[in-house]
Write a structure and sequence with these properties.
Elements (H helix, E strand, L loop, with lengths): L1 H23 L4 E4 L5 E8 L2 E9 L29 E8 L4 E9 L4 E10 L2 E7 L6 E8 L2
Antiparallel strand pairs: 1-2, 1-8, 2-3, 3-4, 4-5, 5-6, 6-7, 7-8
Length: 145
């Protein structure tokens, strides 16, 4: 009887872990920013979530060359292409549709901000901030179908 109860308990725990992982991975995929100018691919490395520029409506500058990270504070990184640039880094899932403890990089300003993301169906609220979440800005991204 004890053995049967132990097996049932282990199966229930495994099921809960599996459901939690599926819920956490709901963020994976491609998202479109509010302007529709960029697509961001969110992917997973280990237990953390990242996002990179996967498509840019206007990928080249006025000279016809690929746009680069020209506003990066690190001069050595200014020549790297915008396409493929990792914008979201090191997010963890908190179990309540929120991804936190990550950062978001804004290539337009060259600044990196603390960030948290909240998923609601096919929308993703991105909150970038300095210090505490109260001092920040929210953008809503839409899942690309």
């Amino acid at each position: 009887m004890l053995r049967k109860t132990s097996i049932t308990l282990l199966m229930a725990i495994s099921f809960c872990i599996s459901v939690s992982a599926q819920k956490a991975d709901a963020i994976l995929g491609t998202w479109v920013n509010p302007s529709g100018q960029d697509h961001i691919l969110i992917y997973k490395k280990g237990n953390k979530y990242y996002g990179k520029l996967d498509w840019i409506k206007v990928p080249n500058d006025e000279t016809g060359k690929p746009k680069t990270d020209k506003n990066n504070p690190d001069v050595a990184l200014r020549s790297r292409p915008d396409l493929g640039l990792e914008l979201l880094k090191d997010f963890t899932f908190d179990g309540d549709d929120v991804y936190e403890d990550g950062t978001i990089y804004d290539p337009k300003s060259g600044k990196t901000y603390s960030c948290k993301m909240t998923i609601e169906g096919n929308t993703l609220k991105i909150r970038g901030y300095v210090g505490i979440s109260l001092f920040g800005r929210t953008e809503v991204w839409t899942r690309l179908k």
